[in-house]
């Protein structure tokens, strides 16, 4: 159905309806804006929540990250952060695909509607003006007809009167003829204008107004169609991020499924195992004879061996379940809390730690030193390559300028190797003194539950009063001194697989573009052409060389000054 034929007389109502349609578009645009703001605020709150619970540097949370349930929680936080990013994407797409488009379309719609109704009003004004002119011609024709009739009647009256002179009769006759002619002219003018008006009126109601109303109808249908497209886009914007949101949720699920209670419980053993042996059996003390109790070889009071006892009586060994040892148990607990505050304050060989913790510390130190040696050797190899390039291409630099740095690196490597030998000696010493695995397995059931408390009690056993009685004050003093050198947990556990990591393919950390051609004749280098795009797998470590890869089989070093490097954001952060 056409507005031009069905609604030819509803100009005012169509004007109100189209204005309401524009207001509806504005209302829907406002609705999408508010939805976008909600998505932005929600994403911001989710990011803040994720950031709030992220592990902080140099804190206990970093130590907890070695547990699978902690790592799963941190993975959940990272996935939640990515999840928040998808809500930001929703807000951005709503703004770019709906809000911006509707704002621009509204301006065009208002301008088009204004133009159509301006043409309609102009047509209405024209037909109304024509109608007024027709009415004017009609009234003039009517007036002239009446005047001609009166002039005719006056002439006939004068002609019938015998007292009127012939001149007056002639004058009346001429006046009647003139009025009759005026009426005839008015009639012709009225008839002509009437035909013109009817034609204009026919054009107005059957051509001009239908065309204008048809344009308005097309405009309105396009507006409705545009609203439908926006509503569909509104749903599609959410549907587009569902796959990534699903991956985030899958990542959370995978992280939760990766939790291994057995592994975490073993990690507790690795973190707190002291390496000491549980105390031996308590020997029977026969007070009917002058006997001395023989101290168990496995006791932690070995430091007192060989010393003469001031009393012939010896105090029985204190055990964790004895009421007097409550203070010792509290101090042991306090020891675990202050461990992180005092860590690293002991001697260089970690002799203040229990055997197992000392072994782990020494092994971690050796691994760190080996990493430093590897870095120094990488720098030495890179400088050697640079020196070879300078020798073959003197215009690139002076080969002698590299020698001081090579000498310095050689000295650093020697110092680090000496440090490694020193720590390896201490490690060998600790491993010789540690009990065999068979002995520790035999006692593991009792040891895992009582070892730390037994250590505390054994140390406290040797503090006796002159009369042979045990005092809690002396026990407190002993435990406080023991806390000064706590059983610290190593910040990094030794990784025995690190020596095999070099065989793995290095990850890509960015891309680069060759600014100049490089032939790469020397071993370890790779030839590149000007403008060639490559993958960066190792940054310049200050030696002027960057490690790049062309494909899985071709990689090597190129001069950093020959390329333009673009690192990935996560590579820069790391």
Structure, described:
The chain has 574 residues and is mainly alpha-helical. It folds into three domains: 3-263, Substrate Binding Domain Of Dnak, Chain:A, Domain 2, CATH 1.20.1270.60; 342-433, no CATH class; 510-567, SH3 Domains (SH3 type barrels, Roll), CATH 2.30.30.40. 66% of the residues lie in helices and 5% in strands. It contains 13 helices and five strands. It has helices at 3-6, 11-52, 60-64, 68-160, 166-257, 261-272, 326-342, 355-392, 403-433, 437-442, 444-461, 472-484, 569-573, and strands spanning 510-514, 533-538, 545-549, 555-559, 563-567. Strands 4-3-2-1-5 form a five-stranded antiparallel sheet. Helix 4 (68-160) runs antiparallel to helix 5. The longest helix has 93 residues, at 68-160. The protein is elongated. Residues 291-344 and 437-503 have low confidence and may be disordered. Residues 359-386 form a coiled coil. It is found in: Cell membrane; Cytoplasm, Cell cortex; Cytoplasm, Cytoskeleton. This is Formin binding protein 1b. Keywords: Cell membrane, Coiled coil, Cytoplasm, Cytoskeleton, Endocytosis, Lipid-binding, Membrane, SH3 domain. InterPro entries: AH/BAR_dom_sf, F_BAR_dom, FCH_dom, FNBP1_F-BAR, HR1_rho-bd, HR1_TOCA, SH3-like_dom_sf, SH3_domain.
